[in-house]
Design a protein that fits this description.
about 30% strand; alpha+beta; three-stranded antiparallel beta sheet; about 90 residues; two-stranded antiparallel ribbon
């Protein structure tokens, strides 16, 4: 499902115009992005949790040259699905 498909379905479910639904989706993405950027987590009970995690530095292999390389430590966004979401997918 693309963003435009999602906006169409959200507009239909919430009885909104496509413009209002698109603005709501953009606002949601912005709020989650801003929260993760400062290290906060965003949790929706039953749906899931967006959070940031530290990934330690590690040694990897360049697949083209087979040479060993150092991969720097980094911060990555993560999502953990909630119980209700997991059970609805099963």
């Amino acid at each position: 499902m693309t963003k435009s498909d999602f906006v169409e379905k959200l507009a239909a479910k919430a009885d909104l115009s496509k413009k209002d639904a698109a603005a709501a989706v953009d606002a949601f993405v912005d709020v989650v992005t801003e929260a993760l950027a400062v290290g906060e987590s965003v949790q929706f009970t039953g749906f899931g949790k967006f959070y940031v995690q530290q990934r330690e530095a590690r040694e990897g292999i360049n697949p083209q040259t087979k040479a060993k390389i150092q991969i720097a430590a980094t911060t990555v966004p993560k999502f953990s699905a909630g119980t209700a979401l997991k059970s609805s997918v099963r």
